[in-house]
Design a protein that fits this description.
Blueprint (H helix, E strand, L loop, with lengths): L5 E5 L4 H8 L5 E5 L1 H7 L7 H13 L11 H33 L12 H9 L4 H34 L1 H6 L7 H11 L8 H7 L4 E6 L2 E7 L5 H14 L5 H10 L4 H22 L8 H13 L22 H8 L13 H10 L2 H7 L16
Parallel strand pairs: 1-2
Antiparallel strand pairs: 3-4
Helix pairs in contact: 4-6, 4-8, 6-8, 6-13, 8-10, 9-12, 10-12, 11-12, 13-14
């Protein structure tokens, strides 16, 4: 191996460690996309020697479809969000096992749920047969350990969210808290590599399979390419966004009238990705957010930060005085850029909001905050 050589490798879960080791010794390393390579050079006989020759020939002809190599910060985000997803899966599995033991004994669960402070206290004290009691206690100890690790990791992620301007921009979207925002940033990485929001949604596997030939077109389910964790998180965010009084919630409710709920949820998740792409590209927070919800999410992330850390101050491009409308006043106070108000909306945007029946809500969030009247005087008798 010489310093002028170029290497071609297949993308695998652990290939990044190999690339980091070999990169100082060669001119370049190209990580190929195995799905696209298979479509280009599929052979009936498949061996390691044949695969290596195929990769070498594709690299020599500059026809090797490569994958994007994430930067160290994106790699760290992918690692942390992956660990968080694994811990949540472990916690859910333990909850299901405890529920299964109690259901097998026909035990009536307390009102309000089992995994609340009162519910957990009840689960630790309820009388059960000896074997069942020991089993539930084991699962509860594992649940407490996983919950503690998840809380510790969540504090770290909320701190990262508070100090990352991109994440805080995404947190202005309906249904998107720090977990969803960090997972989306980790999956997309540098958004400039996508032509538009539709390509970003396709990268995450949220676009339908299309097969068209001889005037016939078939549209199937979504491709499910890319990060499964991101799709799951976006689907959860879309479920929260269905009740939003703005255009995103109206999009779901309109689609729900002629499609099944699952299809409408996935379509809303795809719409959420396209809006997130435009939010990051234009460096503009969501124009139709609810100020109270945004303030609550950002404060939740801020509480995780060390008290000694300096608060984020508005950028110098922000106006020196607070805006008159409610939404932009919230954005300025939390160090975010301002969003375009009704006076800057195009005729097409106004027409779309009117047709969706949300123009009144959109104008309301940009209206001046209500003035507080004088405090009533106390009359001493």
């Amino acid at each position: 191996m010489q310093s002028t050589d170029k290497l071609a490798v297949d993308a695998t879960p652990d290939i990044q460690a190999v690339v980091d080791i070999l990169k100082p010794f060669v001119a370049a390393i190209v990580v190929g996309n195995p799905l696209q390579i298979k479509a280009i050079a599929q052979a009936k006989v498949k061996t390691d020697k044949i695969d290596a020759e195929v990769l070498a020939n594709l690299l020599r002809c500059d026809f090797l479809p490569d994958v994007w190599e994430p930067d160290p910060q994106t790699q760290r985000l992918r690692h942390l969000t992956g660990v968080r997803s694994a811990l949540i899966s472990d916690r859910t599995r333990l909850k299901n096992r405890i529920h299964s033991v109690l259901a097998g004994l026909l035990v009536v669960l307390p009102e309000g749920g089992l995994f609340t402070s009162k519910g957990l206290a009840w689960a630790r004290s309820v009388k059960l047969p000896d074997d069942a009691r020991r089993t539930v206690d084991r699962f509860l100890r594992l649940y407490d350990a996983v919950e503690a690790e998840l809380e510790s990791l969540d504090i770290e992620l909320r701190t990262l969210a508070h100090h990352d301007a991109r994440v805080r921009l995404l947190m202005t979207l309906p249904g998107v808290a720090h977990g969803v925002a960090l997972t989306l940033i980790a999956a997309l990485g540098d958004i400039s590599r996508f032509r538009d929001g539709d390509h970003a949604a396709s990268y995450l596997g949220l676009t339908p399979v299309v097969r068209q030939s001889a005037g016939k077109s078939y549209r199937g389910s979504i491709t499910k390419a890319g990060s499964s964790t991101s799709r799951a998180m976006l689907t959860q965010a879309a479920q929260h966004a269905t009740e939003h009084p703005g255009p995103l919630g109206a999009f779901y409710r309109r689609l729900k009238k002629r499609k099944t709920r699952n299809i409408a949820i996935v379509a809303t998740a795809r719409k959420l990705v396209t809006i997130a792409y435009m939010t990051l590209k234009n460096n503009e927070p969501y124009r139709y957010a609810q100020p109270d919800r945004v303030r609550s999410k950002l404060r939740h992330a801020e509480r995780a930060c060390d008290k000694a850390s300096k608060p984020i101050k508005p950028s110098v491009s922000d106006p020196p005085s607070e805006p008159a409308n409610r939404l932009n006043r919230t954005y300025v106070r939390t160090g975010l850029p301002i969003a375009q108000g009704p006076g800057d909306w195009t005729s097409g945007e106004r027409r779309a909001l009117t047709e969706a029946g949300v123009i009144e809500f959109a104008e309301t969030v940009h209206s001046p905050p209500p003035k507080r009247g004088p405090k009533p005087k106390t009359i001493l008798k």
